[in-house]
Design a protein that fits this description.
By secondary structure, this protein is an all-alpha fold. Helix content is 66%, strand content 3%.
């Protein structure tokens, strides 16, 4: 009996160490990906898959790495592997795949994922509109990774980042034009028609538009929220941005500005800041202390109910 117990303990210890090693290898590969060392990341993920072929995270992030390198055949190969048991649409709005959008194989990925999601959760009333909105969301979030890597390697002011911002501006203009057409034809995209993640695309496009469009569509977003067809958290973020752009204090503390004199980020002026967490909770946002922590900002205003 003692021999059996010792053997079981040894097997458990070996298994635990193996899992820890695999997690460490994956974390190291992910760090290479975030740093823009894509070829090194590819080698690291392939090494993990050589030891553990069923590692879904490794195959998915390997697909991301290949897509960012515009190595499409390899990207689609490992994306197919990683999505074999996946019943979500997360890949359909992942900005790492922006260079795959014009490839006919992307439409096949969309079709398969929607089929799997529908089989598990029910039909999309307007699947083609959902797909278009996912693409718009993907494009909206695209190239931030590239800009982050460029700034890490070349500094905050560099010609590559400038060119990428111009590309983002052109993409945003295309998204805005198409979204206005969609709203004119169908109204504000409803969660009941396109599902939540696709409806989120409409918010993102307008949130990144100019003040005129935000003023135009903020009332429509509010109506959608009141009907349960959009998220109040998105409305709060857009409301704050409009207030800031018009020179008024924000309500929910979502807008942060950079102080050139101190070299630090700080929250834009907040109306009755002692009640900001109360207001944030009402719209589904977390405490402002946690939010501002991402900007290394310490919030010291005592809160009231």
């Amino acid at each position: 009996m003692r021999t059996f117990i010792l053997s079981s303990c040894a097997l458990f210890l070996i298994s635990t160490l193996s899992i820890a090693q695999e997690k460490g290898q994956l974390a190291a590969a992910d760090s290479l990906l975030r740093a823009g060392q894509l070829l090194e990341a590819v080698n690291a993920y392939r090494s993990i898959l050589g030891q553990e072929p069923a590692n879904q995270n490794a195959s998915y992030n390997l697909a991301c790495s290949y897509a960012l390198l515009n190595m499409r055949d390899s990207a689609f190969h490992f994306l197919d592997i990683s999505l074999a048991q996946d019943t979500s649409v997360r890949a359909l709005n992942d900005p790492d795949f922006v260079l795959l959008l014009e490839d006919e194989r992307w439409a096949e990925i969309e079709h398969r994922q929607v089929e799997k999601v529908e089989a598990k959760y029910g039909k999309y009333p307007k699947p083609e509109l959902s797909k278009e909105l996912w693409r718009m969301q993907l494009k909206d979030q695209a190239y931030y990774y590239h800009m982050d890597v460029a700034e890490k390697q070349l500094g905050p002011r560099n010609p590559l980042t400038t060119a990428l911002w111009q590309l983002k501006k052109d993409i945003n203009a295309q998204n805005e034009q198409r979204l206005e057409e969609i709203i004119a034809e169908n109204g504000w995209p409803k969660k009941s028609e396109v599902k939540g993640s696709a409806a989120q695309a409409a918010f993102l496009v307008i949130q990144h538009a100019d003040l005129e469009l935000q003023q135009k569509y903020l009332p429509l977003l509010k109506e959608a929220c009141e009907a349960g067809e959009a998220d109040w958290s998105g409305y709060a973020l857009m409301y704050d941005r409009v207030e800031m752009r018009e020179g008024r204090p924000q309500l929910f503390g979502s807008q942060v500005t950079f102080n050139k004199e101190t070299g630090n980020y700080e929250p834009y002026a907040i109306k009755e800041p002692e009640y900001v967490n109360k207001r944030r909770k009402e719209v589904g946002l977390g405490p402002i202390e946690e939010y501002l922590g991402h900007w290394n900002i310490e919030w010291q205003v005592e809160q009231k109910e």
